[in-house]
Design goal:
This protein has helices at residues 22-26, 49-58; strands at 31-33, 39-41. The protein is α+β, with helices and mostly antiparallel strands and 65 residues long. The N and C termini lie far apart (23 Å). The protein binds iron/sulfur cluster (SF4).
């Protein structure tokens, strides 16, 4: 049986990310720009679920799931 997740974990598709930094500015405790100029999702995401959902909705290339 798969244990129930307490919070959803965001994931960034680096192939799609264009490094616009929108998500890292909206939810700095959940996303970080790496040296390669692409965002990565921090684990665990420390911003509110609403914030992470906003980042998902605002990403211009739908790289966050
Ligand atoms: S909002 Fe999307 S494109 Fe912009 S840095 Fe975040 S994941 Fe990358």
């Amino acid at each position: 049986m798969i244990p129930k997740m307490m919070t959803r974990q965001a994931k960034v598709d680096k192939e799609l990310c264009i490094g616009c930094s929108l998500c890292t500015r909206s939810c700095p405790k959940s996303f970080k720009l790496e040296d390669d100029g692409k965002s990565t999702a921090l684990a665990p995401a420390s911003d509110s679920e609403e914030c992470v959902q906003k980042a998902i909705d605002e990403c211009p290339v739908q790289a966050i799931s």
